Structure to design on (257 residues):
């Protein structure tokens, strides 16, 4: 695949958007390659880290040169493609960490918002500059940014297109931690490795339950969370881990059973 690559460190998969000459801008080929890379994930991959190739950008947005000449029909096809891909990332059963290593603009910010957790380097810059180009975010960012940051700050960013640097992103909760550029990937892999060491059935249930909080009423979410909770029972991993605690011994590694 030309525009996306997959590597593995233990049980952590790392997807790199790979079009550094255009700051990883997203065109149809890049979106297709990201989707094909997701197809390569296996049950052994317990956490996914997404980052961008090069030192300047995570993803500098959708490809403006491509969008410039699109008519409404083509714009719908392209936006649907990006939107569906980001929804797929959001709904992956494993946790997804965005390691934002520079510009996360437009569609790049939207990609980071579709991830479960965001970490960034000190040189990260977030913005939704679409209104300066005569459009709005097309890959679901309008919905996710309000849920992630709350309506007031989200609308300010949507209406102004202003750039938000890493420290502000940290203080408003957009990113969980900020790293020196050279420490970002090891920080992301460490976090992913910690997650990957936990019981996979429980992690999948925790992600599904947490995702419900943005997507359904409290009543429906509480009921669904009960079933996700019970779904962890009568599994080998639950029984082994609880027995190990009660018997005061180290638990066996989790086996996803
Ligand atoms: N689309 C296409 N090409 C892009 C791009 C984009 N979003 N962002 C960067 N590039 C290309 C540049 O055209 C340039 O290519 P050439 O070398 O062939 O000229 C190359 O990447 C390097 O970029 P710059 O020379 O501009 O680098 P810089 O350091 O001077 O500036 C930047 C970096 C501030 C990120 C600047 O490139 C920029 O503003 N990019 C556009 C960001 C943007 O507006 N993104 C939102 C797109 S709209 C969107 O995403 C809509 C949606 O939701 C569907």
């Amino acid at each position: 695949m030309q525009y996306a690559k997959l590597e593995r460190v233990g049980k952590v998969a790392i997807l790199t958007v790979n079009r550094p000459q255009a700051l990883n801008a997203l065109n149809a080929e890049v979106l297709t390659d990201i989707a094909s890379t997701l197809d390569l994930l296996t049950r052994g991959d317990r956490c996914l880290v997404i980052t961008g190739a090069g030192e300047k950008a995570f993803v500098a947005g959708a490809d403006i040169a491509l969008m410039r000449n699109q008519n409404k029909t083509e714009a719908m096809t392209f936006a649907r493609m990006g939107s569906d891909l980001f929804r797929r990332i959001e709904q992956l059963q494993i946790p997804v960490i965005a390691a934002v290593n520079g510009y996360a603009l437009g569609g790049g910010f939207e990609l980071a918002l579709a991830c479960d957790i965001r970490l960034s380097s000190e040189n990260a810059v977030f913005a939704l500059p679409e209104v300066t180009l005569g459009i709005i975010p097309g890959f679901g960012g309008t919905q996710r940014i309000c849920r992630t940051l709350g309506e007031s700050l989200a609308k300010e960013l949507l209406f102004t297109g202003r750039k938000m640097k890493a420290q502000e992103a940290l203080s408003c909760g957009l990113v969980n931690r900020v790293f020196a550029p050279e420490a970002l990937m090891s920080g992301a892999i460490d976090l992913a490795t910690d997650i990957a060491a936990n019981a996979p059935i429980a992690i999948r249930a925790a992600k599904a339950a947490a995702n419900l909080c943005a997507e359904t009423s409290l009543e429906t979410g509480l009921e669904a969370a009960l079933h996700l909770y019970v779904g962890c029972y009568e599994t080998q991993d639950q029984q082994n881990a609880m027995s190990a605690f009660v018997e005061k011994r180290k638990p066996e590694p989790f086996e996803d059973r």
